[in-house]
Amino acid sequence: xxxxxxxxxxxxxxxxxxxxxxxxxxxxxxxxxxxxxxxxxxxxxxxxxxxxxxxxxxxxxxxxxxxxxxxxxxxxxxxxxxxxxxxxxxxxxxxxxxxxxxxxxxxxxxxxxxxxxxxxxxxxxxxxxxxxxxxxxxxxxxxxxxxxxxxxxxxxxxxxxxxxxxxxxxxxxxxxxxxxxxxxxxxxxxxxxxxxxxxxxxxxxxxxxxxxxxxxxxxxxxxxxxxxxxxxxxxxxxxxxxxxxxxxxxxxxxxxxxxxxxxxxxxxxxxxxxxxxx
Length: 278
What we know:
about 280 residues, mainly alpha, 2 domains, elongated
């Protein structure tokens, strides 16, 4: 640490992001802030643990609650920056504000240090510099985050037809499953397999439901266009082919509505075609 009377703060030498696998698809400015925030979180814990109040007033000597607030807000900031869909900028700003307010309260609780307590004061000043540096990094990179989020919002708007079609697929699959479940023995749903595969009709319905109601929307929210092109469309194509093959298993069923619902499901999956992603 430099002499605070003649220079400002510390020379911060980042360790780098040692847990990059946790970032997933997070890149660019967001990854930079995340790595810095995570490093501050790791470095802050022993500094927070070392802090002790020097006030004789018993009402002002307990800094444990503030210590927990500082740690929790740092943890919340790291979590916010790890979101694959991007940090919620207003929330990240609020967390930083609360963090700095908590540090200000800690400084008031510490009081004036004696010679013996100088190390604890030094630890606090180091922590204060870490957080101030984190705020400077955030302020510097925030415009890049905002630009990325505007691009993402535009991309998601372009993918809205795919989201709506997933809802159609989910509805069609539910109707087809209900019709078939009313027309055949429930055991047949579990034992009738599709083509040469070991996939049962019940497994197929479960897969389609999870894909249309959960997996597909998450691929769009987290991966945008790449999520659609790399994972969503190939999955939709495979499910379409499996439904087409399964038509042979339900063809000639005593209830004519069954085949009609299955064909409606087939048409819904057909509409999840690459040509629909502009």
